[in-house]
Amino acid sequence: MAKNNLLTERKAFQFLKENAENIPHIAEIFDKQPARGKDYIIQTEGITLDISKQRVNDDSIKLLCDLYYESNVPEHIKMLFNGSLVNKSEDRAALHTQLRVPKEKQKESYNIVNDQLDHMELIVNQIHNGTWRGFSGKRITDVVNLGVGGSDLGPLMVCHALREYSLPSVGSLNVHFASTIDGSQLFGLLKDLKPETTVFLIASKSFTTIDTLSNANTARSWLLSVCPNKELMLRCHFIGISSSAEKMSEWGIVEKNQLSIWDWVGGRYSLWSSVGLSIALALGMPLFRELLKGAHSLDEHYRTSPPEKNIPVMMALIGIWNVNILNIKAQAILPYDGRLKYFPSYLTQLEMESNGKSVTQDGEPIDYSTCPILWGEVGANAQHAFYQLLHQGTQSVAADFILAAKRYDTNQDDSHKNSLVAQHELNISNCLAQSRVLAFGNYAIGNNSNPFRNYPGNQPSSTLVLPKLDAFTLGSLIACYEHKVFTQAVIWGINPFDQWGVELGKQVASQLKCLFSEDNEPNKAGALDSSTLALASMIQDFRKE
Amino acid sequence: MKIRILGDGLEAWTIAAVFASTGCHVELASNMKLAVNMTSASFLSDIEKQNNSLKNELVEPDLIRLIVEQKDRLTVIPQDNEYRDHIDILLDARLDAAEEKHLIALERYANSCSENNNLGVYVLTQPVKVGATDALEERLKNTGLTCIDCVYWPLFIESGRAVESYVTAERYIIGGGCEESQNKIKQLIHPFNRNNSSIMLMPAKAAEMTKLAINGMLATRVSFMNELAALASEHEVDIDFVRQGLGSDPRIGSQYLYPGCGFGGDAFLNTLNHLSEEFERGKESKKYNLLSSVWEINQQQKDLLFQKFWRYFNADIKGCSVAIWGCAFKPETASIIGSAALELIPSLLAHDVFIKIYDPIAANSVQSWLGEHPLVEYSSSPEESAQDVNAIMLLTDWKIFWNLDLRSIAKLMRTPLLLDGRNIYDPEQARTSGLIYSGIGRGETI
């Protein structure tokens, strides 16, 4: 394979820049292409992508597809799926797609995937049907997932999104999440939970993550205070999820409570692995498998569709176009669905930790932008928060609108079903209204001479429509963004699977710890800047008061 | 008097036999087919052929004797048999029949009465939704039939002493109906109780609610005692002293104050289900009403002996063996509906614990419920089941368990752990016999 040259050096990139000069205001693009609304739509099972409100024309799409080929994306997709070492700096594959291959299609060498799913299912069944008991012999009523980053955001997001589909087998089991290193979330939970009926899942790929392990240590002491038999307590109340069996055993997780993940599963791509145990516990194993099925369906779509009919590829290309050609450095994620409350924060990790890079896979510095600043909120709520800036601020912002067409279509109590359906209709109207006003501005309502009521428009957006939000379509939606991120990384020439940027902070934090512990030995911290020193001493003074 | 009874359960069979024994001609519309020359033995084998755990509650010696004695006046007919003669009273004793089923039966009966210009009495005896009797009568009137009076007559048949519980009842409640129908029902009561003052008349709705309330109250007493037992256990107090003290207060009385490993029984649980549905349907519907706590405590009690077993062996129970003494939900019945055994057996099996079951008459019920299982064995005596086990769990207070030689039983066992779910033994005596004894709120706290 040819050396991955820089984006800006590619031929298609130059043509794209020229093309952009001829792109008018979105309203004018629509004047020229009145049927755009129908033409700029891509569909696959469970997801429809509408890019008609992006600032592109047929030529830009064609050139973006040229860029796709010129950047060797198809070859990289093959490498991603066949287990090549696509994560060069860590010398690893990134085979999250393998986790979603259906059992009957799974390659023999990946039987470990099925084995872990079976082990998960065993644990899930035991907890759901009451076979699993706490130290005192009582059934489990609460599960707390201790994890951070990928071991927290993905499972939390999925559990929240699909809660209403939770299967009857789940019964009254409650699943909680605690991630913060300061212990606040755990502190809040421990006040209400009963140790004898609570199980902790410790999810950490390395099993050394300090945030998670410090929470786990607190949970362990909490249980030890009521069950002094440590061996019994560990056996009945702690499940580990990690790639290091050794570290799990060292901490005290008994072998039958150890679930494995592997080097080739990145943290932010791990909700499909046994890290998803909290999902299976909260919703039921069949729903977890349905989630995998939805993601696999999207994997196949990504792997086999040409770029112009490929949803994640087109999302990626539009993203590159917005960032590198139109110079739009902000991306809003706007789900019009309260169930997707945590989807934006999940995506901030997926996109910004993956593609927040400034050197190529080979370590060469790059001179163009990569991942934009990405943030978001449930759309209808964000309308009352930051939409003002989108409509009348000075920044160009691209947006993804996400919407489920059907809602409240299951057998609900009739008395308020109609009113809920009416709320959903209002929600849809709001979603469509916002993308329309962002794109067309004044054109949508006719010109207005009042400067305070001037809407410039021309803010590009895509709309993702799911027929309904369920385990299958959510699985597809997540996989969509994963593949978008990978495609962009290939075009930018960067490695989406490492995260060296977060290492230095951890290192320095452990260096500073001695400033605040009881055996205060500030000298161990080494030479420090005056700002850090002044802050540390002020904080210590407050603590002593 | 000519009576027809709909139903297959304990209540239907009991009143069929009792009314026949007073000279009534009784037709029992049941799915069971009986031998021409019925004997106790043939009846028993007919019950077994049904292979339905519901029927096991009919295995009560007194009841079977009475049924067989009445074979000339008691005819078993198919469910939807035609009406050849006029039937004075139709008693619908089907457990948990839907309203539509009641209405179908009622309409057929009404048609036969109106053809002959007779007045009929249709009586519901099982727990129903509050308002069900009046609603049925209303629906019938809407079809133009007015020849039937609908009455709610709750019976208080107790399994284990079914016949006795009817013939020695201290009070009877008749809900709704005109004087003529009430008199017909009184005629069924008089042979056993000539005292009209023990008959209470009230509106049908009130009677329906009373039926539910009585069992709700009893269940509440038992669950309260169970909650107290847990507290007693924490303080190492023998709950039996507390029970006796409580029961001696005339405002409280001593009935239904026995803590234990949970109450069960088809009729009892069915009534409670109805009652909790009423609460959930009510305007002030709350998920956590008193009754739901009563229910939750009862579920917890059924699991309690497993928890003690688990704690005693520090969760190392795989490969252990346990003797289960009694599976019937109460003595003198073969019914296991709602019994703690139904909770404990699956829990033990899920942890690969070997089980030896002894029950004087309910063992067959367990076998037909559980099927063959490699880890389950049935013993022919309590002693046989105790051989080499790590624990005995006593779930039913069958008389046979009361005065066993505990000393020799302790010697038979691998671990002499006796978990007494009915508090029938004296803790001190059990201890001196060499047993580690833990009951419900007495004996060792495990």
What distinguishing features does this structure have?
heterodimer; A: 545 residues; alpha/beta; Rossmann fold; six-stranded mixed sheet; five-stranded parallel sheet; 11 strands; globular; B: 446 residues; 2 domains; six-stranded parallel sheet; 43% helix
Characterization of this structure:
The complex is a heterodimer of chains A (545) and B (446). Chain A has 545 residues and is α/β, with parallel strands linked by helices. Chain A has three domains: 7-94 and 305-492, Rossmann fold; 101-289, Rossmann fold (3-Layer(aba) Sandwich), CATH 3.40.50.10490; 500-544, no CATH class. Helices cover 46% and strands 11% of the residues of chain A. Chain A contains 21 helices and eleven strands. Chain A has helices at residues 11-21, 26-32, 36-39, 58-70, 73-82, 111-129, 153-162, 184-192, 210-224, 230-237, 245-251, 277-283, 285-304, 311-325, 343-355, 379-382, 387-392, 414-440, 471-492, 503-512, 530-544; strands spanning 41-44, 47-50, 142-146, 174-178, 198-203, 238-242, 258-260, 330-335, 373-376, 398-406, 461-468. A six-stranded mixed beta sheet of chain A has the order 1-2-11-10-8-9, sandwiched between helices. In chain A, strand 8, helix 15 (343-355) and strand 9 (373-376) form a beta-alpha-beta unit. Chain A is globular. The mean pLDDT of chain A is 94. With 446 residues, chain B is of the alpha/beta class. Chain B folds into two domains: 2-202, Rossmann fold; 216-438, Rossmann fold. Chain B is built from 16 helices and 14 strands. The longest helix of chain B is centred in the middle third of the chain and has 31 residues, at 204-234. Chain B is globular and about 75 Å long. Chain A binds chain B through residues 126, 129-131, 133, 135-139, 229, 232, 235-236, and chain B through 303, 306-311, 314-315, 347, 350-351.
